[in-house]
Design brief:
Number of helices: 15
Low-confidence stretches: 1-9, 416-423
Largest sheet: none
Mean pLDDT: 84
Shape: globular
Radius of gyration: 21 Å
Helix content: over 70%
Number of strands: 0
Order of helices and strands: HHHHHHHHHHHHHHH
Strand content: under 5%
Protein backbone atom coordinates (compact mmCIF):
# COMPACT_ATOMS: atom_id res chain seq x y z
CA UNK A 1 0.00 0.00 0.00
CA UNK A 2 1.32 3.44 -0.93
CA UNK A 3 2.03 5.73 2.02
CA UNK A 4 0.13 9.04 1.99
CA UNK A 5 2.09 12.15 1.22
CA UNK A 6 3.26 14.04 4.32
CA UNK A 7 0.76 16.66 5.40
CA UNK A 8 -2.00 15.41 3.08
CA UNK A 9 -4.27 14.39 5.96
CA UNK A 10 -3.84 17.73 7.73
CA UNK A 11 -4.52 19.64 4.50
CA UNK A 12 -7.70 17.65 3.90
CA UNK A 13 -8.90 18.32 7.45
CA UNK A 14 -8.22 22.03 7.06
CA UNK A 15 -10.02 22.11 3.69
CA UNK A 16 -13.09 20.33 5.05
CA UNK A 17 -13.19 22.63 8.08
CA UNK A 18 -12.95 25.77 5.96
CA UNK A 19 -15.53 24.59 3.42
CA UNK A 20 -17.95 23.71 6.22
CA UNK A 21 -18.77 27.42 6.52
CA UNK A 22 -20.24 27.79 2.99
CA UNK A 23 -21.75 24.29 3.34
CA UNK A 24 -23.74 25.41 6.39
CA UNK A 25 -24.77 28.59 4.56
CA UNK A 26 -25.95 26.56 1.56
CA UNK A 27 -28.02 24.26 3.76
CA UNK A 28 -29.61 27.13 5.67
CA UNK A 29 -30.47 29.16 2.58
CA UNK A 30 -31.79 26.06 0.78
CA UNK A 31 -34.17 25.34 3.66
CA UNK A 32 -35.31 28.97 3.94
CA UNK A 33 -36.16 29.19 0.23
CA UNK A 34 -37.96 25.82 0.36
CA UNK A 35 -39.96 26.90 3.41
CA UNK A 36 -40.86 30.24 1.81
CA UNK A 37 -42.09 28.68 -1.43
CA UNK A 38 -43.96 25.92 0.39
CA UNK A 39 -45.64 28.42 2.71
CA UNK A 40 -46.56 30.65 -0.22
CA UNK A 41 -48.11 27.70 -2.06
CA UNK A 42 -50.08 26.73 1.07
CA UNK A 43 -51.48 30.24 1.39
CA UNK A 44 -52.43 30.31 -2.29
CA UNK A 45 -53.93 26.82 -2.01
CA UNK A 46 -56.10 27.98 0.90
CA UNK A 47 -57.26 30.95 -1.17
CA UNK A 48 -58.07 28.86 -4.27
CA UNK A 49 -59.62 25.83 -2.59
CA UNK A 50 -61.23 27.28 0.53
CA UNK A 51 -61.74 31.05 0.60
CA UNK A 52 -62.71 31.59 -3.03
CA UNK A 53 -65.20 28.69 -3.52
CA UNK A 54 -66.94 29.38 -0.21
CA UNK A 55 -67.15 33.08 -1.08
CA UNK A 56 -69.13 32.22 -4.22
CA UNK A 57 -71.09 29.38 -2.60
CA UNK A 58 -69.50 26.43 -4.43
CA UNK A 59 -68.35 23.14 -2.92
CA UNK A 60 -64.55 22.96 -3.48
CA UNK A 61 -64.74 19.16 -3.52
CA UNK A 62 -67.35 19.23 -6.28
CA UNK A 63 -66.52 18.08 -9.77
CA UNK A 64 -67.05 21.42 -11.51
CA UNK A 65 -64.68 23.27 -9.16
CA UNK A 66 -61.99 20.60 -9.43
CA UNK A 67 -62.19 20.52 -13.21
CA UNK A 68 -62.35 24.31 -13.58
CA UNK A 69 -59.52 25.02 -11.14
CA UNK A 70 -57.10 22.53 -12.70
CA UNK A 71 -57.94 23.68 -16.23
CA UNK A 72 -57.39 27.31 -15.19
CA UNK A 73 -54.12 26.32 -13.50
CA UNK A 74 -52.96 24.66 -16.72
CA UNK A 75 -53.82 27.75 -18.74
CA UNK A 76 -52.06 30.08 -16.28
CA UNK A 77 -48.94 27.89 -16.18
CA UNK A 78 -48.85 27.73 -19.98
CA UNK A 79 -49.09 31.53 -20.28
CA UNK A 80 -46.27 31.96 -17.74
CA UNK A 81 -44.04 29.44 -19.50
CA UNK A 82 -44.71 31.08 -22.85
CA UNK A 83 -44.43 34.76 -21.97
CA UNK A 84 -42.51 35.32 -18.71
CA UNK A 85 -38.75 36.03 -18.91
CA UNK A 86 -36.80 32.81 -18.58
CA UNK A 87 -39.85 30.71 -19.58
CA UNK A 88 -39.76 28.87 -16.21
CA UNK A 89 -36.55 27.07 -17.07
CA UNK A 90 -36.23 23.67 -18.76
CA UNK A 91 -39.13 21.24 -18.86
CA UNK A 92 -39.05 18.99 -15.77
CA UNK A 93 -39.86 16.06 -18.06
CA UNK A 94 -36.44 16.30 -19.68
CA UNK A 95 -34.31 18.04 -17.03
CA UNK A 96 -32.06 16.10 -14.68
CA UNK A 97 -32.39 16.47 -10.93
CA UNK A 98 -29.56 18.70 -9.80
CA UNK A 99 -28.28 19.72 -13.24
CA UNK A 100 -26.24 22.80 -14.06
CA UNK A 101 -27.13 26.13 -12.48
CA UNK A 102 -29.78 28.19 -14.29
CA UNK A 103 -29.39 31.94 -14.87
CA UNK A 104 -30.93 34.07 -12.13
CA UNK A 105 -33.40 35.57 -14.59
CA UNK A 106 -35.13 32.18 -14.79
CA UNK A 107 -35.81 32.00 -11.03
CA UNK A 108 -38.90 34.30 -10.81
CA UNK A 109 -40.83 32.53 -13.56
CA UNK A 110 -39.83 29.06 -12.33
CA UNK A 111 -40.86 29.94 -8.76
CA UNK A 112 -44.20 31.36 -9.94
CA UNK A 113 -45.01 28.28 -12.04
CA UNK A 114 -43.95 25.89 -9.26
CA UNK A 115 -46.00 27.69 -6.60
CA UNK A 116 -49.07 27.84 -8.84
CA UNK A 117 -48.80 24.15 -9.70
CA UNK A 118 -48.49 23.14 -6.04
CA UNK A 119 -51.42 25.35 -5.03
CA UNK A 120 -53.61 24.53 -8.02
CA UNK A 121 -53.78 20.79 -7.32
CA UNK A 122 -51.25 19.49 -9.89
CA UNK A 123 -49.92 16.02 -8.98
CA UNK A 124 -46.24 16.95 -8.73
CA UNK A 125 -43.93 17.64 -5.79
CA UNK A 126 -41.58 20.58 -5.21
CA UNK A 127 -38.21 18.81 -5.45
CA UNK A 128 -37.17 19.51 -9.07
CA UNK A 129 -37.99 23.24 -9.18
CA UNK A 130 -36.75 23.96 -5.65
CA UNK A 131 -33.38 22.32 -6.33
CA UNK A 132 -33.10 24.34 -9.57
CA UNK A 133 -34.06 27.58 -7.80
CA UNK A 134 -31.69 26.99 -4.89
CA UNK A 135 -28.86 26.09 -7.24
CA UNK A 136 -29.29 29.28 -9.27
CA UNK A 137 -29.51 31.52 -6.19
CA UNK A 138 -26.65 29.92 -4.26
CA UNK A 139 -24.32 29.69 -7.25
CA UNK A 140 -24.70 33.43 -7.74
CA UNK A 141 -24.41 34.11 -4.00
CA UNK A 142 -21.28 32.07 -3.44
CA UNK A 143 -19.66 33.40 -6.61
CA UNK A 144 -19.88 36.80 -4.96
CA UNK A 145 -18.84 36.00 -1.38
CA UNK A 146 -16.98 32.64 -1.59
CA UNK A 147 -15.27 32.81 -4.96
CA UNK A 148 -12.82 30.00 -4.23
CA UNK A 149 -15.57 27.40 -3.75
CA UNK A 150 -15.82 25.40 -7.00
CA UNK A 151 -19.13 25.75 -8.84
CA UNK A 152 -19.47 21.96 -9.09
CA UNK A 153 -19.21 21.68 -5.31
CA UNK A 154 -21.89 24.34 -4.90
CA UNK A 155 -24.23 22.28 -7.10
CA UNK A 156 -23.71 19.15 -5.04
CA UNK A 157 -24.03 20.89 -1.67
CA UNK A 158 -27.18 22.69 -2.77
CA UNK A 159 -28.79 19.43 -3.79
CA UNK A 160 -27.75 17.88 -0.46
CA UNK A 161 -29.05 20.82 1.56
CA UNK A 162 -32.36 20.85 -0.29
CA UNK A 163 -32.88 17.08 0.04
CA UNK A 164 -32.08 17.31 3.75
CA UNK A 165 -34.65 20.08 4.13
CA UNK A 166 -37.29 18.23 2.09
CA UNK A 167 -37.20 15.13 4.29
CA UNK A 168 -36.18 16.74 7.58
CA UNK A 169 -33.04 14.59 7.96
CA UNK A 170 -29.57 14.45 6.38
CA UNK A 171 -29.84 10.66 6.05
CA UNK A 172 -31.73 10.95 2.75
CA UNK A 173 -29.00 13.13 1.27
CA UNK A 174 -26.27 10.79 2.58
CA UNK A 175 -27.90 7.79 0.91
CA UNK A 176 -28.50 9.71 -2.31
CA UNK A 177 -24.86 10.83 -2.46
CA UNK A 178 -23.27 7.53 -1.47
CA UNK A 179 -23.31 6.12 -4.99
CA UNK A 180 -22.06 9.33 -6.55
CA UNK A 181 -19.36 9.85 -3.93
CA UNK A 182 -18.13 6.30 -4.29
CA UNK A 183 -17.58 6.87 -8.01
CA UNK A 184 -15.57 10.06 -7.50
CA UNK A 185 -11.89 9.83 -8.33
CA UNK A 186 -9.28 11.07 -5.91
CA UNK A 187 -7.85 10.27 -2.50
CA UNK A 188 -9.78 10.11 0.72
CA UNK A 189 -12.26 7.83 2.38
CA UNK A 190 -15.90 7.69 1.31
CA UNK A 191 -16.94 9.63 4.40
CA UNK A 192 -14.48 12.38 3.49
CA UNK A 193 -16.44 12.82 0.26
CA UNK A 194 -19.75 12.72 2.13
CA UNK A 195 -18.59 15.14 4.83
CA UNK A 196 -19.58 18.43 3.19
CA UNK A 197 -22.89 17.14 1.74
CA UNK A 198 -23.78 15.92 5.24
CA UNK A 199 -22.92 19.33 6.69
CA UNK A 200 -25.18 21.05 4.15
CA UNK A 201 -27.96 18.48 4.50
CA UNK A 202 -27.78 18.61 8.29
CA UNK A 203 -28.05 22.41 8.29
CA UNK A 204 -30.98 22.30 5.87
CA UNK A 205 -32.77 19.61 7.88
CA UNK A 206 -32.24 21.45 11.17
CA UNK A 207 -33.65 24.70 9.79
CA UNK A 208 -36.64 23.00 8.15
CA UNK A 209 -37.41 21.00 11.31
CA UNK A 210 -37.27 24.18 13.37
CA UNK A 211 -39.58 26.01 10.98
CA UNK A 212 -42.14 23.34 10.18
CA UNK A 213 -40.83 19.78 10.12
CA UNK A 214 -40.64 17.29 7.28
CA UNK A 215 -42.63 17.56 4.06
CA UNK A 216 -43.39 13.83 4.27
CA UNK A 217 -45.50 13.59 7.45
CA UNK A 218 -47.25 10.30 6.64
CA UNK A 219 -46.65 7.30 8.91
CA UNK A 220 -48.37 3.96 9.43
CA UNK A 221 -49.83 3.21 12.87
CA UNK A 222 -47.37 1.08 14.86
CA UNK A 223 -47.90 -2.69 14.50
CA UNK A 224 -44.81 -4.45 15.95
CA UNK A 225 -42.09 -6.45 14.19
CA UNK A 226 -42.85 -8.17 10.85
CA UNK A 227 -43.18 -11.96 10.73
CA UNK A 228 -42.16 -14.50 8.12
CA UNK A 229 -45.35 -14.22 6.06
CA UNK A 230 -44.98 -10.43 6.07
CA UNK A 231 -41.47 -10.74 4.60
CA UNK A 232 -42.68 -13.09 1.87
CA UNK A 233 -45.62 -10.82 1.08
CA UNK A 234 -43.31 -7.78 0.89
CA UNK A 235 -41.03 -9.62 -1.53
CA UNK A 236 -44.04 -10.22 -3.79
CA UNK A 237 -45.70 -6.80 -3.40
CA UNK A 238 -42.55 -4.74 -4.08
CA UNK A 239 -41.89 -6.07 -7.62
CA UNK A 240 -45.61 -5.91 -8.47
CA UNK A 241 -45.69 -2.27 -7.34
CA UNK A 242 -42.52 -1.60 -9.33
CA UNK A 243 -44.15 -3.06 -12.44
CA UNK A 244 -47.19 -0.87 -11.80
CA UNK A 245 -44.92 2.18 -11.56
CA UNK A 246 -43.13 1.18 -14.77
CA UNK A 247 -46.47 1.16 -16.58
CA UNK A 248 -46.66 4.85 -15.66
CA UNK A 249 -43.11 5.42 -16.91
CA UNK A 250 -43.95 3.94 -20.32
CA UNK A 251 -47.21 5.91 -20.48
CA UNK A 252 -45.28 9.08 -19.61
CA UNK A 253 -42.88 8.70 -22.52
CA UNK A 254 -45.79 8.24 -24.93
CA UNK A 255 -47.82 11.08 -23.41
CA UNK A 256 -44.90 13.50 -23.58
CA UNK A 257 -44.59 12.95 -27.34
CA UNK A 258 -48.32 13.51 -27.82
CA UNK A 259 -48.41 16.72 -25.81
CA UNK A 260 -45.40 18.15 -27.66
CA UNK A 261 -47.22 17.78 -30.98
CA UNK A 262 -49.28 20.80 -29.89
CA UNK A 263 -46.01 22.80 -29.83
CA UNK A 264 -47.31 25.75 -27.78
CA UNK A 265 -47.01 25.40 -23.95
CA UNK A 266 -50.26 27.35 -23.64
CA UNK A 267 -52.06 24.57 -25.51
CA UNK A 268 -50.46 21.49 -23.98
CA UNK A 269 -50.47 22.70 -20.36
CA UNK A 270 -54.10 23.79 -20.68
CA UNK A 271 -54.98 20.39 -22.12
CA UNK A 272 -52.96 18.77 -19.35
CA UNK A 273 -54.81 20.81 -16.74
CA UNK A 274 -58.17 19.76 -18.20
CA UNK A 275 -57.13 16.08 -18.14
CA UNK A 276 -55.96 16.48 -14.55
CA UNK A 277 -59.34 18.02 -13.75
CA UNK A 278 -61.15 15.00 -15.18
CA UNK A 279 -58.90 12.66 -13.24
CA UNK A 280 -59.54 14.71 -10.11
CA UNK A 281 -63.28 14.38 -10.61
CA UNK A 282 -62.85 10.61 -11.00
CA UNK A 283 -60.52 10.10 -8.04
CA UNK A 284 -61.76 12.86 -5.76
CA UNK A 285 -59.82 15.42 -3.69
CA UNK A 286 -57.44 12.76 -2.31
CA UNK A 287 -55.82 12.41 -5.74
CA UNK A 288 -55.00 16.13 -6.03
CA UNK A 289 -51.84 18.05 -5.03
CA UNK A 290 -48.40 16.59 -4.37
CA UNK A 291 -49.71 13.74 -2.23
CA UNK A 292 -47.85 14.10 1.09
CA UNK A 293 -50.73 15.16 3.34
CA UNK A 294 -53.10 13.05 1.25
CA UNK A 295 -50.94 9.95 1.95
CA UNK A 296 -51.27 10.59 5.68
CA UNK A 297 -55.03 11.02 5.34
CA UNK A 298 -55.30 7.77 3.41
CA UNK A 299 -53.21 5.87 5.95
CA UNK A 300 -55.34 7.05 8.85
CA UNK A 301 -58.66 6.73 7.00
CA UNK A 302 -61.60 4.42 7.59
CA UNK A 303 -60.26 1.39 5.70
CA UNK A 304 -61.48 1.78 2.13
CA UNK A 305 -62.35 -1.22 -0.02
CA UNK A 306 -59.95 -2.84 -2.47
CA UNK A 307 -61.75 -1.35 -5.48
CA UNK A 308 -61.64 2.18 -4.04
CA UNK A 309 -57.94 1.90 -3.23
CA UNK A 310 -57.14 0.45 -6.65
CA UNK A 311 -58.93 3.37 -8.32
CA UNK A 312 -57.02 5.86 -6.16
CA UNK A 313 -53.68 4.28 -7.10
CA UNK A 314 -54.51 4.18 -10.81
CA UNK A 315 -55.90 7.72 -10.91
CA UNK A 316 -52.94 9.18 -9.02
CA UNK A 317 -50.46 7.40 -11.28
CA UNK A 318 -52.32 8.70 -14.34
CA UNK A 319 -52.34 12.21 -12.84
CA UNK A 320 -48.59 11.98 -12.22
CA UNK A 321 -48.03 10.91 -15.83
CA UNK A 322 -50.14 13.75 -17.24
CA UNK A 323 -48.66 16.41 -14.97
CA UNK A 324 -45.08 15.34 -15.70
CA UNK A 325 -45.67 15.06 -19.46
CA UNK A 326 -47.74 18.22 -20.00
CA UNK A 327 -45.13 20.84 -19.16
CA UNK A 328 -45.83 21.49 -15.47
CA UNK A 329 -42.74 22.09 -13.33
CA UNK A 330 -42.34 19.68 -10.43
CA UNK A 331 -40.96 16.44 -9.07
CA UNK A 332 -42.38 12.94 -8.97
CA UNK A 333 -41.33 11.49 -5.62
CA UNK A 334 -44.20 12.75 -3.45
CA UNK A 335 -47.03 11.65 -5.79
CA UNK A 336 -45.21 8.33 -6.26
CA UNK A 337 -45.39 7.85 -2.48
CA UNK A 338 -49.18 8.31 -2.59
CA UNK A 339 -49.44 5.76 -5.41
CA UNK A 340 -47.42 3.32 -3.32
CA UNK A 341 -49.55 3.91 -0.22
CA UNK A 342 -52.78 3.29 -2.15
CA UNK A 343 -51.30 0.22 -3.88
CA UNK A 344 -50.07 -1.20 -0.57
CA UNK A 345 -53.38 -0.65 1.19
CA UNK A 346 -55.15 -2.33 -1.74
CA UNK A 347 -52.78 -5.30 -1.44
CA UNK A 348 -53.48 -5.38 2.29
CA UNK A 349 -57.21 -5.46 1.59
CA UNK A 350 -56.67 -8.60 -0.49
CA UNK A 351 -54.33 -10.11 2.12
CA UNK A 352 -55.90 -9.20 5.47
CA UNK A 353 -53.53 -11.48 7.42
CA UNK A 354 -50.52 -9.43 6.25
CA UNK A 355 -49.60 -6.41 8.35
CA UNK A 356 -50.46 -3.04 6.84
CA UNK A 357 -46.98 -1.59 7.34
CA UNK A 358 -45.40 -4.52 5.47
CA UNK A 359 -47.74 -4.16 2.50
CA UNK A 360 -47.58 -0.36 2.32
CA UNK A 361 -43.83 0.02 2.82
CA UNK A 362 -43.11 -2.65 0.19
CA UNK A 363 -45.45 -0.98 -2.29
CA UNK A 364 -43.97 2.47 -1.65
CA UNK A 365 -40.52 0.94 -2.13
CA UNK A 366 -41.50 -0.55 -5.50
CA UNK A 367 -43.26 2.50 -6.92
CA UNK A 368 -40.58 5.01 -5.83
CA UNK A 369 -37.89 2.69 -7.17
CA UNK A 370 -39.61 2.59 -10.58
CA UNK A 371 -40.22 6.35 -10.72
CA UNK A 372 -37.00 7.70 -9.18
CA UNK A 373 -34.70 4.75 -10.03
CA UNK A 374 -32.64 5.17 -6.86
CA UNK A 375 -32.54 2.20 -4.51
CA UNK A 376 -31.23 4.05 -1.47
CA UNK A 377 -33.85 6.78 -1.74
CA UNK A 378 -36.62 4.20 -2.21
CA UNK A 379 -35.45 2.28 0.88
CA UNK A 380 -35.25 5.46 2.94
CA UNK A 381 -38.75 6.63 2.04
CA UNK A 382 -40.21 3.16 2.58
CA UNK A 383 -38.72 3.05 6.10
CA UNK A 384 -39.81 6.61 6.87
CA UNK A 385 -43.39 5.92 5.80
CA UNK A 386 -43.62 3.20 8.47
CA UNK A 387 -41.95 5.18 11.24
CA UNK A 388 -40.37 1.87 12.32
CA UNK A 389 -36.74 1.01 11.61
CA UNK A 390 -37.37 -2.70 12.31
CA UNK A 391 -38.85 -3.08 8.81
CA UNK A 392 -35.51 -2.23 7.18
CA UNK A 393 -34.35 -5.87 7.02
CA UNK A 394 -37.60 -6.89 5.36
CA UNK A 395 -37.33 -4.03 2.85
CA UNK A 396 -33.69 -4.85 2.03
CA UNK A 397 -34.95 -8.27 0.92
CA UNK A 398 -38.01 -6.85 -0.87
CA UNK A 399 -35.93 -4.43 -2.95
CA UNK A 400 -33.97 -7.26 -4.59
CA UNK A 401 -36.78 -8.66 -6.81
CA UNK A 402 -38.07 -5.13 -7.36
CA UNK A 403 -34.67 -4.04 -8.66
CA UNK A 404 -34.65 -6.92 -11.13
CA UNK A 405 -37.93 -5.59 -12.51
CA UNK A 406 -36.69 -2.01 -13.03
CA UNK A 407 -32.96 -2.30 -13.69
CA UNK A 408 -33.16 -2.42 -17.52
CA UNK A 409 -36.46 -0.57 -17.94
CA UNK A 410 -36.70 2.98 -19.35
CA UNK A 411 -36.20 5.92 -17.01
CA UNK A 412 -38.92 8.50 -16.47
CA UNK A 413 -37.20 11.08 -18.67
CA UNK A 414 -38.51 12.42 -21.97
CA UNK A 415 -37.11 10.61 -24.99
CA UNK A 416 -36.27 13.83 -26.83
CA UNK A 417 -33.73 15.02 -24.23
CA UNK A 418 -30.76 13.43 -25.91
CA UNK A 419 -30.84 10.30 -23.81
CA UNK A 420 -30.18 12.00 -20.50
CA UNK A 421 -30.77 9.93 -17.41
CA UNK A 422 -31.81 11.18 -13.96
CA UNK A 423 -29.03 12.03 -11.52
Amino acid sequence: MTEPEPGLGQNRIRTLAVLSVPAVLIGVVSALILFALDELSRQLQDLLWDVLPHAVGIDPDGGWWIFGMLTATGLAVGLMVRYLPGHAGPDSAAAELGGSALPLKVVPSLAAVAVLGLAGGVSLGPENPIIAINTAVLTALLARFFRRVPARLVLGLTMAGTVGALFGTPVAAALLFTGMAGAMAGPGALFDKLFLPLVSAGAGAAVMTTLGGTMLPASIPEAGSPGGWDVLAAMAIAPLAAAFGLAGVLAFRWAHRQFRRLRSPVLFTTLGGALLGLLGVLGGPLTLFKGAEESEELLHGQGESFSTLAVLAAVKLAALVVAAAAGFRGGRIFPAVFVGVAFGLAAGALLPDIRADAAVSAAVLGVVLAIARDGWLALFIAVVITGDVTVSAMLCLAILPAWLVVTHAPHMVAEDDGGARPA
